[in-house]
From TrEMBL:
This is RuvB-like helicase. Pfam families: TIP49, TIP49_C. Belongs to the RuvB family. Residues 68-359 form the AAA+ ATPase domain. It comes from Gloeophyllum trabeum (strain ATCC 11539 / FP-39264 / Madison 617) (Brown rot fungus). The lineage of its organism: Eukaryota, Fungi, Dikarya, Basidiomycota, Agaricomycotina.
Length: 463
């Protein structure tokens, strides 16, 4: 059974990574220089120098593959850039190193147990770089000739392929003919055929054909006609995550589940077999483990069972770097009656490198506002910038950033190009920040439903 484990990489190669847009879309990295010193304003990052530097140091260790089973925690007040720095880390890592981001509350999903959800997240964050040598046929199609039998049931044909140095004719069977017509391969296409799997991939159209305008879409890619031999041995390297290998090899799922996102629970025995197989591949030099990063945002939302599971998981040698973020001070550990710093049990805190984030200075805030305005394509007048910075100091940075787009709508309504103080002022009256909202609730003196339940942190109780 164990021998049948595959990495299914040929199916996986096409999955593209999704990019988040929104609150953090201006963050393009950590903004550090080669010596890991934070630049003042770079890659969308401003201020918070110590935390950025710490993040950069940890990443360095991850990239050197020296760090497994470690954890770090970003602790600090709301909107001090914890999530932003984690996303900056993700962008610095490069496409080969897996980075998984979850919000702790996602673990409490209905379709699988908490520990299964955590295990999947941990295994998504471990990459396996697999080397394979395959024989391929690569060249420009000169001609495809197909002969159908009288009944049309069997097809035979010939495929002529050339490189700049040679030309060869291959006989085609029904299966290859179907594959060629499915890929819509025409004369003039440059194609590669994997000899073991028979998979055909179109690499583009030959430059020599760039003047024929028929059968060409706007996104047609032109490539040079390949040189040298038509049959080549090629080493292909691809990276998949342990979780992807799990899903592909789980009989009830199949790789389509990866696209649907509906992967269900995976049996522990299968995971054990996969671990052994991957270990074998490593010993044979066919695979390499790339420990990545698992980021758990709002980690105080996990409960005591999850925390003890994490404690154990961190000791596993196939464990990624776990980065967590929390904005709680002394808070109750979910599922218990005990309070603890950041809402995390002390035994977990003991294994964690803690990095604190601090409120921003006025100057930093002004720069962040400036960056966000560029990102959202909004122009503020000089006065408006000063006022918005002031607002961010009095309320929160996030409130001020949210106000930018609202104010722009208001400015457009009066057909102005630039957002002025007046637009901000009106936005400020339409939308309350947290402080004013609390005051308003107090003024309502209990006319809203469900106001009070015992102690303050019972609100978080789930059971
Ligand atoms: N150093 C920074 N440089 C540029 N933008 C930043 C920086 N820090 C925060 N921001 C931006 O400010 C906003 C709030 O920051 P973020 O969401 O990271 O806060 P947080 O610490 O995760 O808060 P919470 O505890 O509420 O989750 C985001 O839009 C973020 O992109
Ligand atoms: Mg956050």
């Amino acid at each position: 059974m164990a021998t049948s484990i595959t990495a299914g990489a040929s199916e996986l190669r096409d999955i593209t990574k999704m990019e988040r847009i929104g609150a953090h879309s201006h963050i393009r990295g950590l903004g550090l220089d080669d010596r890991l010193e934070p630049r003042d304003n770079s890659q969308g990052m401003v201020g918070q120098a110590k935390a950025r530097k710490a993040a950069g140091m940890i990443l360095k260790m991850v990239q050197e593959g020296r760090i497994a089973g470690r954890a770090m925690l970003f602790a600090g007040p709301p909107s001090t850039g914890k999530t932003a720095i984690a996303l900056g880390m993700a962008q610095t890592l490069g496409s080969d190193v897996p980075f998984t981001m979850i919000a702790a509350s996602e673990v409490f999903s209905l379709s699988m147990s908490k520990t299964e959800a955590l295990t999947q997240a941990l295994r998504r964050s471990i990459g396996v770089r697999i080397k394979e040598e395959t024989e391929i046929i690569e060249g420009e199609v000169v001609e495809i000739q197909i002969d159908r039998s009288l009944t049309g049931a069997t097809k035979t044909g010939k495929l002529t392929i050339k490189t700049t140095d040679m030309e060869t004719i291959y006989d085609l069977g029904t299966k290859m003919i179907d594959a060629l017509s499915k890929e819509k391969v025409l004369a003039g296409d440059v194609i590669a055929i994997d000899k073991t799997s028979g998979k055909i991939s179109k690499l583009g159209r030959s430059f020599a054909r760039s003047r024929d305008y028929d059968a060409m879409g706007a996104d047609t890619k032109f490539v040079q006609c390949p040189e040298g031999e038509i049959q080549k041995r090629k080493e292909v390297v691809h990276t998949v995550s342990l979780h992807e290998i799990d899903v592909i090899n789980s009989r009830t799922q199949g790789f389509l589940a990866l696209f649907a996102g509906d992967t269900g629970e995976i049996k522990p025995e299968l995971r054990a077999q996969i671990n052994t197989k991957v270990q074998e591949w490593r010993e044979e030099g066919k695979a390499e483990i790339i420990p990545g990063v698992l980021f758990i945002d709002e980690v105080h939302m996990l409960d005591i069972e999850c925390f003890s599971f994490l404690n154990r998981a961190l000791e596993n040698d196939l464990s990624p770097l776990v980065v967590m973020a929390s904005n709680r001070g002394m808070a109750r550990i979910r599922g218990t009656k005990f309070r603890s710093p950041h809402g995390l049990p002390v035994d977990l805190l003991d294994r964690v490198l803690i990095v604190s984030t601090k409120p921003y200075t006025e100057e930093d805030i002004q720069q962040i506002i400036h960056i966000r305005c560029q990102e959202e394509d909004v122009t503020l007048t000089q006065d408006a910038t000063t006022v918005l910075t002031r607002m961010a100091m009095d309320t929160t940075l996030r409130y001020a950033l949210n106000l930018i787009s609202c104010a722009q709508v208001l400015a457009r309504k009066r057909k102005a190009e630039q957002v002025d103080v007046e637009d901000l002022r009106r936005g400020y009256t339409y939308f309350m920040d947290e402080k004013r909202s609390v005051k308003w609730l107090k003024d309502q003196q209990g006319s809203l439903m469900f106001e009070e339940i015992g102690g303050e942190d019972d609100v978080m109780d789930q059971s």
